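Protein in question kept in full:
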Amino acid sequence: MDMKKFILLTTVITMLASCGSNDKGELVGVKGKKWHPEKPYGMELIPGGAFIMGKGDDDLAGIHDAPAKTATVRAFYMDATEITNSEYREFVNWVRDSILRYKLAVLADEVGKMPEDGGIGEFAFKDADTANMSVYEKYMFENYTGLGPTGYEGRKINRKVDLIFDTADYPDEYYTEVMDTMYLPLEDSYNGQRTWDVKKFKFQYSHMDMQEAAKNRGIKRRDAIVKEEIEVYPDTAVWIRDFAYSYNEPMHNDYFWHDAYSDYPVVGVTWKQAKAFCEWRTIKKNSYQKSRKGAAMVNTFRLPAEAEWEYAARGGLQAATYPWGGPYTKSDRGCFMANFKPVRGDYAADQALYTVEAKSYEPNDYNLYNMAGNVSEWVNASYDPSSYEFTSTINPSVNDNNNQRKIVRGGSWKDVAYFLQVSTRDYEYADSARSYIGFRTVQDYMGTQVTGNK
């Protein structure tokens, strides 16, 4: 190419590049989608700031695992209440229904049934009919679908058709066959009642191990992606297992599923199940965001770090013993301020025998309920008695994948007052479920301008 043609081509490209632009050639940066902070439903904004973390006075139990130190945390949203049975049931039902839809779609594919055939064909994969695919969808279908052990990976199930649970309305024998696989065998049932095989309610998800990726610079991205499969149904037998020689069968039978307990905190969930719930909640919200054109994706929901939990529990009060201040567990009217085990084991003295509704007693100054008592709460941290000595002072967090002792905070309905203190640390193993441990979730706040000492 001669010099004249090169100069002419350069001029044309320059003119085309600046055509329609209003930046007048100035560096104005790339503009993204318009974004406005939106407080998630049921959550409260916790402004970032510094606080004295750990025991503000004598450690009467002599554990010495929480020496006082100054810590600073960034702003975040936190659930106003513990996750309730009703909210967790939504997760369980979503997992169950997703598995059912997937099995129905697979069988429809195997027997060659399409939506127009009716019956099980109505539950065929969304890509069963490729006529209405966009160019992108067709490309993804042709190049990536089925790259896995089953051959069905990447195919989308149909969520628009309602599932049928009444046996009298099953559309065909194929549908009946799939439904039968989700129930316990007849020999495991009694009184003529079919029971869901909850061991099959498994949630699969993947996430990136950011800590591992940051430490090992040479690691490939795919090697830092962790795939999980978690049974999501809570262990209702904890009500019997946790208390030997105690009659708690009614709680085992009714607590999780009966509407009478819908607004009570879910229990019997492991740390891993709580983490899975967070992943599902993120998927649920972002699926809705995708359906709104131009809507931005939201940050992930997660368990709080230990410092975040304590900061939120204090409600802006420095050196307080309890979320309401302290150092007493009764109000000036002689009423207990939380649900715990007072008066040498008089469980009912605080107006509750087991758990209470998640929105009970008075909230703290961040409008958070039951940050002391009711149920202890999983946090995203591993227990190390000396961790306060070596953690960072900004957003301190210790979560060792090899340490299965995970922190629980806040105390519960069966604990004495010491465990209700905002600085008291306790732990349980990640794969353990208890009748007195639940959780609540948090979400990062986008931006840093919201602080408690603004």
